[in-house]
Specification:
This protein has helices at 7-13, 16-22, 56-72, 80-99, and strands spanning 34-35, 41-44, 49-52. By secondary structure, the protein is mainly α.
Length: 100
């Protein structure tokens, strides 16, 4: 039996594109939700769109869109990754809006 890799070291040197390609969950998916370097913009993975954090009106607009998309999914739909992405983006936007 071989020794397990040092996962922390592995992840620290892995570029995101390499990580995405090697992940069985991310390889065929869009990019996840992420802030830019100075946290002034947010890329919403569920909508594949960038949003300026200080623009409250657009944040509310995208929250509304995400809520509608989330509600339109049937409870029997088994695309759980998509549902979880919508749900997490929805909760994040609610938190950002509440802090404004």
């Amino acid at each position: 039996m071989s020794e397990q890799p040092d996962w922390d070291k592995y992840f620290n040197k892995l570029k995101f594109q390499e990580y995405k390609e090697r992940s069985p969950f991310l390889s065929s998916r869009s990019y996840p939700t992420v802030y830019n370097e100075d946290r002034t913009w947010l890329y919403l993975g569920s909508l594949e769109v960038g949003v300026e954090i200080k623009n409250l009106a657009i944040l509310k607009h995208f929250l509304d869109q995400i809520e509608k998309n989330y509600k339109s999914w049937s409870l029997n739909d088994e695309r759980f990754y998509r549902q979880s992405l919508l749900k997490s983006d929805m909760e994040l936007l609610k938190d950002i809006i509440a802090d404004r």
